[in-house]
Design brief:
The structure holds two protein chains of two kinds. By secondary structure, chain A is mainly alpha-helical. Chain A has 14 helices and no strands. In chain A, 81% of the residues lie in helices and 0% in strands. Chain B has 15 helices and two strands. Chain B has a two-stranded antiparallel sheet with strand order 1-2. Chain B is globular and about 75 Å long. The chains are: A mainly alpha, B mainly alpha.
């Protein structure tokens, strides 16, 4: 690697020096692009810390004079934000765990068990994965009312567990399809049954992939909007995404309020992003091309 | 592909020596039981509701009482419904904003970060820049909607204030309230939301590419642009198809952004099929008609997925066959 570099350097010194000149404009252009992506976050943060008077006086583009946290506190109390956070955590967490379990059971039968007609079974899961929620939303709404599950967090957990497991099954099946058969065969000869092989061999070995799926399902469910909007109408059950979306749609918030809402909505996402960034990028690489 | 796998599986099953309990040799595969919870759950949550939705689309129903069978009446009505056609036209523009633009920009960005910044300024700077572009992807769309509604507000909105500050006051607009530009504003927001996804996938794909290819091309005097065109693009063709398929489907399903930014307005200028079916279901309570809209959307998405899957597998096969 380094050898090649120096060779390239000695062979074409002139071009190398010209590329140095071209280097910085490209980097600057990329940084401006990145800044444009981040600026909305900065503007929101800056304005969430201003008092209404200060905002009215100096507009949205000035820097705040101090840390005005009352706006955030007012908003928190007004929408009972703690409850909304807890709902989101409860729903997203339950879905992540349950969907990973369901995915691994399905993928075990398809990828390792190699059941008959598995291509069709897999095709079915892929289709279920791209099916638009618009084609499910009314029946789910109607049937959950019939079953007495309407406006419960449980109903949303059940539906998203299945929807996310469609993707998980598809991804895990291709991962487990390449699982070394010898290990399984050896365990079977030693007298382990299918259940033991799954929990003692397959699950521990595929732990990295399962971790990625867990993170994905959690964030995806956290961000879901359409189904929770339809299913969770009472304030006590709403998730962060739905509560903020509904508030925004009502156009009842003043500027300080809006920024408090936006900042409180952005913060959890930033936490996920920083904690899981490595997992996420790794996971996208796994999921992109099977 | 499926054929060879099946043939192989069966052949193996016949040849497997005694003493190795292979599932295929027995009448019942012991692993099939593991599929039971999944099959049951999917039958209840996905298959059942989907069939019900399709059935309801041939009826007239307000959600109360029993549906009245009307055959294809809903679909005939859709064909003459200007609102329906408009929503699909807007959908096409969303595909441009969420699939076409992010894919092209993402490709150039990925190649620039990987083959230029990573090389000259180190992988850390490339990773930081990548993170900045990816950030909007983890944001709930409702939150992105709040942020942008406020930035694009006609009075005191940051964008208009900024234009005023740099002396372009005459360019100020009611970005989300003017029927002529609201859709373009929503498209702009969606580009911002979506751009990180192709970038990250393409950068991950470039990790697979043999660095010697780039080095050899550089020694032969190929500039950045030629390396991009002759190495980067062909090498990550499978990823390009995956991203295009995923993003197109996401664009057709776009709902949250329209709900929080414009509610489909002003005057239906930003209505999309998903939002159109939502209002038909829950505001107009024409459940049969709403079901017909969502069924059409489903058929389009399923067809697109099949095409995308075909292109992807073909690209992968070509790559496996044509490795240098």
């Amino acid at each position: 690697m380094t050898a090649v570099d120096t060779r390239a350097g000695t062979r074409v010194p002139r071009r190398a020096s010209r590329s140095v000149v071209a280097r910085y404009p490209v980097l600057v252009a990329l940084c401006i692009g990145a800044l444009f992506m981040v600026v909305p976050f900065l503007i929101v943060t800056v304005n969430a810390l201003k008092s209404p008077a200060e905002y009215a006086q100096n507009g949205p583009l000035s820097l705040p004079h101090g840390f005005y946290l009352d706006g955030l506190k007012d908003f928190w109390d007004r929408v009972d934000y703690g409850q909304k956070l807890w709902n989101s955590v409860l729903i997203s967490g339950s879905v992540a765990v349950l969907a990973v379990v369901l995915s691994i059971l399905n993928a075990y039968a398809i990828g390792i068990g190699r059941i008959k007609g598995r291509t069709w079974v897999l095709a079915f899961f892929v289709l279920a994965n791209v099916l638009p929620q618009e084609a499910l939303v009314y029946p789910v709404y109607y049937l959950s009312k019939q079953a007495g599950l309407y406006d419960t967090r449980l109903s949303v957990i059940i539906v998203f567990t299945v929807i996310q497991a469609a993707f998980g099954t598809y991804l895990l099946s291709s991962v487990l399809g390449t699982f070394p058969r010898e290990i399984i065969e050896a365990a079977r000869i030693d007298g382990a049954n299918a259940w033991q092989v799954l929990w003692r061999i397959v699950v521990p070995v595929s732990r990295p992939t399962l971790g990625v799926l867990l993170v994905f399902f959690f964030i995806w469910t956290w961000n879901e909007f359409l189904l929770p909007l339809v299913m969770l109408i009472s304030n006590d059950n709403q998730t962060v995404s739905v509560a903020l979306g509904v508030l925004q749609g009502q156009h009842l918030m003043d500027a300080t309020m809006t920024n408090a809402a936006a900042l409180l909505g952005v913060l959890p996402a930033l936490v996920f992003f920083l904690v899981f960034q490595r997992t996420l990028t790794r996971g996208i690489a796994v999921g992109a091309v099977k | 592909m499926t054929l060879t796998v099946d043939r192989g599986g069966r052949a193996l099953g016949k040849r497997a020596p005694a003493g190795r309990p292979r599932g295929n040799r027995r009448p019942r595969n012991p692993y099939a039981l593991f599929l039971l919870p999944g099959v049951l759950a999917f039958a209840v949550v996905i298959v059942g509701p989907f069939l019900m939705n399709t059935g309801v689309s041939f009826t007239e129903w307000s959600g109360v009482g029993s549906p009245k069978w009307t055959g294809l009446a809903n679909y005939r009505e859709l064909l003459d419904d200007a609102e329906f056609w408009a929503s699909f036209r807007h959908s096409l523009l969303m595909v441009i904003a969420m699939a076409a633009v992010p894919t092209v920009v993402g490709l150039v960005l990925a190649a620039a970060l990987f083959d230029f910044v990573g090389k000259h300024f180190g992988p850390r700077i490339a990773a930081v820049l990548r993170a900045c572009f990816y950030l909007p992807q983890v944001l709930p769309i409702a939150v992105a909607g709040i942020v942008w509604s406020w930035i694009l507000a006609p009075e005191n909105g940051s964008l208009n204030e900024l234009l005023k500050a740099v002396g372009l006051g005459s360019w100020q607009q009611d970005w989300l309230g003017d029927p002529d530009i609201a859709l373009y504003s929503v498209m702009g927001v969606m580009v911002w939301v979506q751009i990180g996804f192709p970038l990250v996938v393409f950068m991950a794909g470039l990790q697979r590419v043999d660095p010697q290819l780039y080095e050899a091309a550089e020694l032969d005097g190929a500039g950045w642009w030629r390396r991009f065109w002759h190495i980067t693009l062909p090498q990550i063709r499978p990823e390009i198809y995956v991203v295009l398929t995923w993003c197109t489907i996401a664009a057709l399903k776009v709902f949250g952004a329209v709900y929080v930014l414009t509610k489909g307005g002003p005057g239906g200028a930003t209505d999309v099929p998903s939002y159109f079916s939502f209002t038909t279901f829950f505001e107009k309570t024409q459940v049969g008609y709403g079901a017909a809209i969502s069924t059409v959307l489903t058929v389009i998405i399923l067809l697109l997925s099949l095409v995308g899957l075909k292109l992807q597998t073909r690209a992968e096969d070509a790559e496996e066959g044509g490795v240098v």
